[in-house]
Design a protein that fits this description.
The protein has about 450 residues and is α+β, with helices and mostly antiparallel strands. It folds into 2 domains: about 325 residues, BirA Bifunctional Protein, domain 2 (2-Layer Sandwich), CATH 3.30.930; about 90 residues, Anticodon-binding domain (Rossmann fold, 3-Layer(aba) Sandwich). The protein has 20 helices and 16 strands. The strands form 3 sheets. Strands 1-5-6-11-10-9-7-8 form an 8-stranded mixed beta sheet. Strand 15 and strand 16 form a beta hairpin. Helix 8 runs antiparallel to helix 15 and helix 9 runs antiparallel to helix 11. The longest helix has 20 residues. The protein is globular. The two termini are about 50 Å apart.
């Protein structure tokens, strides 16, 4: 007996209804991206390993899917190296390419490679899948889509303000209320590291701090101690763990903590600018919240850091995130090009909308009418009418087989087709069509012109 086929863990098949719902989200996001002036690009699904490795920190590097070289890839490995059986050492010899981990680093590579063709500031959006060798769990997959928007070539804080507005605009268009846009600044984290005497361990400090919501205060402290951050420094962090209040209250508390750090004070100034602008402009449904423990453990953020939390009524991780990365293109040889970007987590947004029943009911009604097949002559008349409907932008189809009428009606019901059209002897004789609404059961005999008007 043949073994039942399967797919890799952390990947999924999508049925027609799921694809229609995903496309709904894509279309809403795309519409808002373009409304805000972003232009679309696409990059390859895999990059040269050197493009990706070392850009996401130690933890990120472990989650990058490596692609084996084609052909006899082991033949080029030095015997001594092979005998060591050290996968980290041997990988560069057998794998020169890797699946992209996110869309931001490939975008930085794109900017450097095409810098002479780009007008700066360059606003791009990109909606493509990415891959991570993560442990699959609810809302976390190994293959998933990201929907990114970035601006490079501008240091203006108005870009930070615009991205807060963009998040709000997308989630408002999706009718998703109760979303929290959390914001922090990497300069504040650098200032905190300076104050506690851990400047040389900034990455270790931020990676640990970023896990506060997941593992709790005590575990974070244990991880920091394990990374060599002194207990005296960790004790100075205590006010951060209990920091509460509105944006302004937290800012004032930070000013007292970071009074001796110029870098930290610069971060506070930037956050104040963004908050003051948003307070005057207003948001539709989202809330802007300062979260000083927000670190997003990626190496490349240098300024503002964003993370979007789903409504509290849904048990879900972040549904978006991003930040400023002033030096990202520098790693590919293009210096002094500032950048900032955000990402929407399509798959998690889908789960949130599904949990809250926020998808429009008509989203899967792709076919407006099914023509019942009563025989060859009736089918030909139906196909001619269907051609006219499609020419008028109306989706319709003929049931292909002359089966019992009840089976054809059941087919329409199972596919959520809202109308059926009957063309029998009477309709053929009068060159008309009987339109039946599947929900109400109402029937009416119409000319082709009237049928087109009714279905539109």
């Amino acid at each position: 007996m043949a073994q039942k086929p399967s797919i890799p863990k952390g990947t999924r098949d999508f049925n027609p209804e799921e694809v229609a719902k995903r496309n709904y989200i894509f279309n809403v996001i795309r519409q808002q991206f373009e409304l805000y002036g972003f232009q679309p690009i696409e990059t390859p699904s895999f990059e040269n390993s050197e493009t990706l490795m070392g850009k996401y920190g130690e933890e990120g590097d472990r989650l990058i899917f490596k692609i084996l070289n084609s052909g006899d890839y082991l033949s080029k490995v030095d015997d001594k190296l092979y005998a060591e059986k050290d996968s980290n050492k041997i990988t560069p010899s057998i794998s020169e390419k890797a699946l992209r981990y996110d869309l931001t680093v490939p975008f930085a590579r794109y900017v450097v490679q095409h810098q002479n063709e780009i007008e700066f500031p360059f606003k791009r959006y990109q909606i493509q899948p990415v891959w991570r060798a993560d442990r699959p769990q609810k809302g976390r997959f190994r293959e998933f889509y990201q929907c990114d928007a970035d601006v490079v070539g501008s240091t203006s804080l108005w870009q930070e303000v615009e991205f807060v507005q963009l998040y709000d605009a997308v989630f408002s268009a999706l009718k998703l209320e109760g979303v929290t846009i959390k914001i922090n600044n990497r300069k504040i984290l650098s200032g905190i590291a300076e104050v506690i005497g851990a400047q040389d361990k900034l990455i270790d400090f931020t990676v640990a701090l970023d896990k506060l919501d997941k593992i709790g205060e005590e575990k974070v402290k244990e991880e920091m101690l394990g990374k060599g951050i002194p207990q005296s420094g960790i004790d100075k962090l205590q006010p951060l763990f209990s920091l509460k209040g509105d944006f302004g209250t937290q800012i004032n508390e930070l000013k007292s903590i970071l009074f001796s750090s110029e870098e930290g004070k610069k971060g506070i100034e930037e956050l104040e600018f963004i908050n003051n602008a948003i307070s005057e402009l207003g948001l539709k449904t989202a809330t802007l919240q300062l979260d000083v423990t927000l670190a997003r453990g990626l190496n490349y953020y240098t300024g503002a850091i964003y993370e979007v939390a789903a409504p509290k009524t849904v048990d879900m991780g972040s549904i978006g995130g991003g930040g400023r990365y002033d030096d990202l293109t520098g790693i590919f040889g293009l210096k002094d090009v500032s950048g900032i970007g955000i990402s929407f987590g399509l798959d998690r947004i889908y789960l949130v909308l599904e949990a809250l029943n926020l998808f429009p009911e008509t989203i899967t009604n792709t076919v407006k009418a099914l023509f019942i097949n009563f025989g060859e002559a009736e089918a030909m008349a139906s196909v001619k009418a269907i051609k006219q409907l499609r020419d008028n932008g109306i989706s319709a189809e003929l049931f292909p087989d002359n089966k019992k009428t009840i089976k054809q009606f059941n087919y329409a019901n199972k596919r959520n087709i809202p109308n059926v059209v009957l063309v029998g002897d009477e309709e053929l004789a009068s060159n008309s069509f009987t339109l039946k609404n599947m929900a109400s059961g109402e029937q009416q005999m119409l000319s082709l012109e009237a049928l087109i008007k009714a279905l539109k």
